[in-house]
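Complex 337.
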Amino acid sequence: MTMRAAEAATFADLALPDAMRAAIGRELESLPDPSADIDRASARCHQVFAMLPLDLLRSVLDFGRHNDAPGVALVRNLPVDARTGPTPLDGGPGRGKSGFVSEGVLLGLSGLLGEPLGVLTEKAGRLIHDVVPVAGGERTQTNQSSAVFLNFHSDITYDPTGRYDRANPDFLVLNCLRGDPAGEAVTYYADARDICGELPSDALEILRGPHFRLNAPGSYTRSVAGGSEVLSEPVPILSGGGTHPEIAVSANGVHALNRDAGAAFERLQETCRSVAHEVRLEPGQALLVNNRKGVHARSRFAARHDGRDRWLQRTYVRRSLWDIRYRVTPQDHRVHF
Ligand SMILES: O=C(O)CCC(=O)C(=O)O
Ligand SMILES: [Fe+2]
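Predicted structure with fe (ii) ion bound:
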């Protein structure tokens, strides 16, 4: 993990004391399969994570609640499962785990930020997503990829209103079960505050105008549109006040509506690379990602599809499910169209 000293304010580095890792691990060893009753599991994980040392607990809560908090936080020295089993080849879930410690860690951290939610077109509506390289998806701009740089993006959600940056998660939590054996895979995070500090004012003005159409996520276009583009209405990339900018970028293609907008978007991508924090996730580490304050990316890495590839588990989290109630499925109050 490297961190640019000047941007310390947009990155938080948190670690559990060894005794706390062991204590939380012991409690989570007996966690039943959370998918059987996710609200009960989430309540139980809340109880377990309440034993975090006060300053650490407060840092995670602050990350979720404060506008001036960092956009990304690494949490280290988390408990892991006794046996992880092979990395799933098919996009998950895994079948060889000894228990549900990693799921418990994910739900415990997620519950301190807000409410995990599912979307039917993303991992079949599951609340715990497995992020693993999938054969056939190597070169896509989705979390199945490995052979390409996954561009700086926000996790967006197709919505019939034409805005894909409204029903999407406020946060992503990424918990690492298996690191990339070759150590190549890097996760990047570029905070919009740092991006705005670097970009010239003419580029910023263009990026703040509705000169862009975002393509829906690959998981959506694949399942609903046979892979064709499904574009948003014209939207700005940057919005919100000068000190608290929000950014929305799609991984799966951004259409700039004129040449100046295209040039400004190119400039944005370069700037993301120059200000980004970098993390090589390892087992026992989780990354808390604010999906509005910044954009994330992932380097290319080698996938062998042999059960030993890099493996993350992910949740999508919103502070509140209220604003997306128009999308809820009748079957499950956490799962949305
Ligand atoms: O693999 C990573 O590090 C991040 C992938 C990603 O963009 C995501 O899971 O949303
Ligand atoms: Fe993503």
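The helical segments are 18-29, 38-49, 54-65, 101-113, 192-198, 201-207, 218-224, 259-275.
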